[in-house]
Design brief:
- This protein has 279 residues and is of the alpha/beta class.
- It has a single domain, classed as 2-Layer Sandwich (Nucleotidyltransferase, domain 5).
- Helix content is 38%, strand content 21%.
- Strands 1, 2, 3, 5, 6, 7 and 8 form a seven-stranded mixed β-sheet that branches.
- Helix 1 packs antiparallel against helix 2.
- It starts with a strand and ends in a 9-residue tail after the last strand.
- The relative contact order is 0.21.
Length: 279
């Protein structure tokens, strides 16, 4: 018996004022993929959202439709049919002794850590009874073909880690996709964008030369608050800016339907002058 899981993954905003290197992923059991995707696409059509939905497209005009779509999407998250993981790095945690090579490959090095750890794949097959295959669909990677291929090679090499728990990745299951064709990836993009928006205080931005915020900024803030309400409906008092607690159970890295990970390198030093309330 083989189980199949699919991870959709994307990144957003490599450099923010307070938080940077945002990565997001949505994991779904492959046998439910078509059914869930069809339901989400039908909901989009019902709402009159016939084009790709994404955070950058949120406006006052479409706000109610986006809120309704995210409410519907979170029903799948609450029932644990879709697992969402968001990773980011706080600028105040300054990594030390980075080489030129580290800085050059930062994007892919962090992406690798996200795939390796964020979903708790180590805990997805506790009895190792079934063989599990893991598919990975990345929204189009932004680097050269050579570097993208090298990154996929590192992802394939995760077999050496995951195979201990009878979890396997096949080369043909590591792919780049166009988010226009994958509604789950689109919905995850909205959550990812909302977290960057709030953590980097983009909700406070004013129109240049004015004391007022723009209508789009206000609409995005309302959508962010709706997303947070959905998260807090099953995680009361959820704090978006810190790593989600495992509550003394490492298997919750896998079990939890929704988690945040504030990535911190082992040799980082905290610089309070880079926080929202500098000391």
């Amino acid at each position: 018996m083989e189980k199949q899981y699919l991870i959709y993954a994307d990144e957003s905003h490599r450099k923010g004022k307070y938080f940077s290197n945002f990565y997001g992923g949505a994991l779904v059991n492959y046998i439910y993929l078509e059914k869930i995707s069809n339901k989400l696409n039908l909901k989009k059509e019902e709402l009159g959202l016939f084009q790709e939905v994404k955070w950058t497209k949120v406006t006052e005009q479409y706000l109610d439709k986006y809120i309704a779509l995210m409410d519907y999407f979170f029903e799948f998250v609450k029932s644990n049919k879709i697992k969402i993981r968001i990773m980011f790095r706080q600028n105040a945690q300054v990594p030390q002794n980075l080489t030129k090579e580290h800085r050059k490959k930062e994007y892919f090095l962090l992406y690798y850590q996200f795939i390796k750890h964020a979903f708790g794949i180590d805990f997805c097959n506790p009895r190792e009874k079934d063989q599990v295959s893991l598919k990975l669909y990345f929204d189009k990677l932004p680097d050269t073909k050579k570097k993208n291929k090298e990154f996929k090679g590192y992802i394939y090499a995760l077999n050496d880690v995951f195979c201990i728990n009878n979890v396997h990745i096949y080369n043909e299951d590591i792919a780049e996709v166009d988010s226009k064709n994958h509604v789950i990836l689109q919905c995850m993009d909205i959550i990812l964008g909302a977290m960057n928006f709030k953590l980097n205080n983009l909700d406070k931005e004013k129109i240049p030369g004015s004391r007022s915020r723009g209508k789009r900024t206000i609409a995005k803030e309302k959508l962010y608050k709706n997303i947070l309400r959905n998260i807090r409906s099953f995680y009361p008092n959820f704090n978006i800016g810190i790593s989600t607690s495992i509550r003394n159970d490492f298997s919750n890295y896998w079990k939890d339907p929704y988690r945040h990970w504030c990535f911190k390198s082992k040799n980082s030093v905290f610089d309070s002058s880079l926080t929202k309330k500098p000391k």
